[in-house]
Queue: 4 jobs
Job 1
Amino acid sequence: MSVRVKGILLVLAAALLWSSGGLGIKLVPAEALAISGFRALFALPVLLGFLQVRHGGALPALREGLRRPVLWGAAASYAVIVVCFVMANKLTTAANTILLQYTAPVWVALLSGPLLGEHVRLRDWLATAGCLGGMAWFFGEQLTPGGLTGNLIAIVAGVGFAGLTLLIRVNQRAWQLETGSTLAMDRHPVVAVVLGNVLALCIGLPWMLRTAELSPTAWAVLVALGTLQIACAYLCFTAGVARLNAVESNLVAMIEPILNPLWVALGTGETPSTNALAGGTLILLSVTLRSAWPRREPA
């Protein structure tokens, strides 16, 4: 399996796990910052265990990461994603949240040139336009002028998603120039996600402490949101994004807003409209064609 194919499959796995987030958040009767804090709390053991087993110890990896400012930037971007995503889901519709968060490829396309020197080709812009057009079609009937605060927070989550993608790539480039090694491809992104979860936990702690008693079902959902929807998903994503260019990784992850309504339909009985099916088809085509487009750059 080529490095690029492996990267695509890893990002697809992350999108599958992420897609359960909207439904899970709606099912937990707690404040947004408490939910984001609990998700981070339950995610940390999985991430630290991965560093311990896969990379020869969590503490050495964390000490190395703490000395790299770009990883702190990636950690802050990650914290912005997970906190703002929960807040937006509580303040506006899930459709608004997912659509506005997935403006991330636009920010990546605009910034990958200055930050990474990656040339954004016409096919990248066409695929981005196709995905954004498909999502507008997909959610067009559901978008509302209300929930302005939630909508703005969802856009901030999109900026955070773009920042995480770009800064992981910046760190990878810098590490390879410094050492000639690719060891940072898997280790450093996980360190950034660990640090980001620590930040999210600190932000949510006051709301976690005053959370009313939750049912066993709500706790089970929170555990799943932390261990699977956050920890396992980001382990897949950070490994995948290191193997793809920045625009492509975000485009592949756009499968998430197609899967999200499927879980909502199974969990609540809601079914997508004809417009949703048409928009979803356009997104799938855009992602599939861009991912399958032959690359002519040197290896």
Job 2
Amino acid sequence: MNRLDFLNRQCTDEKQCRFILAACRAALTAGFILKDLYDKPHTITMKGEINLVTEADIAAETAIVASLQEDAPDIPIMAEESAEESPQEPKGPIWVVDPLDGTTNFAHGFPIFAVSIALMENGRTTIGVIYCPLQDELFCCWQDGGAWLNGKAIRVTETDFLVQALVATGFPYDIHARLDDVLSQMRAILPKVRDIRRAGAAAVDLAYVACGRLDGFWEMDLKPWDTAAGWLLVEEAGGQVTDFTGKDYSPFYPEVLASNKTLHPLLVDQLA
């Protein structure tokens, strides 16, 4: 059975179904490339002091762009390796793509990374797909259609006390300039929660909040391709996504806080 057959059963809107299938096909194609290249020697270039690009980023992005252009040729694509450093929020529909979220992990052989593909329309994500190739986990969602992992519905946790919460965070590439902010956040949250994880891939962290493996996640200095798909995934799984102050979220604003709706105001208080 085709692993995407469940989408034809669950997604009743013809247009949504077409686009979610396009995003899933592109993510699976890129994931096959990443899995194939994972244990081979890598060609690494630097976008910043600790910001890497590998041959796998480029190969995966090329495959995603080709796949999306075939399935949805009228929609422009904003992909990490070919986009501007600080992209502006578009007005019309656009694919927002991270071909390899967790490049540093990939380059070091640390097996946590993902493909992230979102369709945004007028500032809102309407389709979201995150694929973790090594685990063969395909997370997907569409507006008002719920959140899914390998064809099964997923939900955020019901944890209601910080002391019971397992949360995650990430560190910015300009950590030297933001070290005081990062340490301040850690001092505020670490004593209040059960523990903190730092996996190194924001898309994966958001997917893990959506499926209940994590109770919450926060990070600063992110790009739209890091969070555009995970934003909708968490919300469709019953969670909440805002900035650190609890205001409405946009992937074009460089900080994100995601959790279930009970913990969310408690985490906002700590980050404040």
Job 3
Amino acid sequence: MDLSKHAGIIVKRLSKGYPDIKCHLEFSNAFELLISTVLAAQCTDVRVNMVMVPLYKSKYRSPEDVLKDGEINFRENIKSINFFNNKTKAVIAICEDLTEKYKSKVPETMDELTSLPGVGRKTASVILGNCCGKKDVIIVDTHLKRVAARLGLTDKENPEKVEEDLKKIISSKEQFYFSMRAGEHGRQVCKAKKPDCENCFINDICPSAFKN
């Protein structure tokens, strides 16, 4: 199988299937998306939006606002989010770095973003793609990883290896959109426990179709 050709067909089909894809987390700037992405780990985007959107509007407009309010108050405000204790510590550490090293601005490179406490390549790619206009980023979340494996685009488990494989076969100008659309396909159709192969518009070229 010519993987690049196979990937190209998948990219086209996904773009037709999900033409108006957008981030599920609600945000008005890079700072909000950064914090919400950290909080969304092992938690639903719906829950994070419910908790954080009112807080961004009322009190947390900048890293300084979070630090001024303090760790105890921030923890209390996000306690309905999974793992709120550890996430509070992560957010406080990120806000400290943003104020001390980046003049309270969210940096716009992979190296700088991943230098922030607890920020990995996936979170950095979310910021770069949604806020910085970068198209050559692959967002390896659980949905994309599952969909890419089932479609035969990678056989790796490690997220960085998955990213490497996909970057080799997907056009750099399509990588961000592919990530978003493949993630959406994973949410809506190619679900973890029971993929809806019957109603999948990629089932004719999917090596895993009707096998799960």
Job 4
Amino acid sequence: MDETQTFIAIVPAAGVGKRMQANCPKQYLKINEQTILYHTVSKLLSHSCITQVIIALGENDQYFNDSGLVDNKNILRVTGGKERVDSVLSGLKAINSIKNPWVLVHDAARPCVSLTDIDKLIQTCRQHNSGGILATPVRDTMKRGHLLNADISTINNTVEREQLWHALTPQLYKTDELTSAIEKGLKEGWNITDEASAIELANLPSLLVPGSSENIKITNPDDLALAEFYLNKQAAK
């Protein structure tokens, strides 16, 4: 990859985030008077190699116009789908893979990703000419549960944590390979939970690039305060 290579980042933002128990999709909740989506997209565009962000929005999105991003010329909006993978594919179809042979995909609800980690991901993938993801090693003892009901599970067994990783984003892959893997996966009914899972199922290599544990995904109400703490900490540097 050329040292001057620039990148487009896709941000799937068509989800509703039911676990947040909020009256709007979680990406539109606010931290420090700005939407989570604003923080996330602004962080991506502040990276010197990222020139455009494609945001995949829900077909009936009523909130984006008040997100603080509507007039940003470096943002392209596309219509997302029912599942995350559908939104990512919609974004991929808006990219010219000749001009942009690599693409980043980043969760809308991960505003605390660091520019240093994005650098590391890009540099590692360049060095090995292979796609990869930011990830953190599992530190805690892992238990596989058996669901008793909606509220409680019992322990089934202990899972060996060595070489277990938490998958984060961004995830960086060759545009054509990711597009083909997702299209094949959807056609064959694969369970595609992130870009890496599509690449895995297509039997293509994928690197694990260690990233910061501060790169949390805002999922539950308690995560808002933690994300605010990390964002304020990063802004103070």
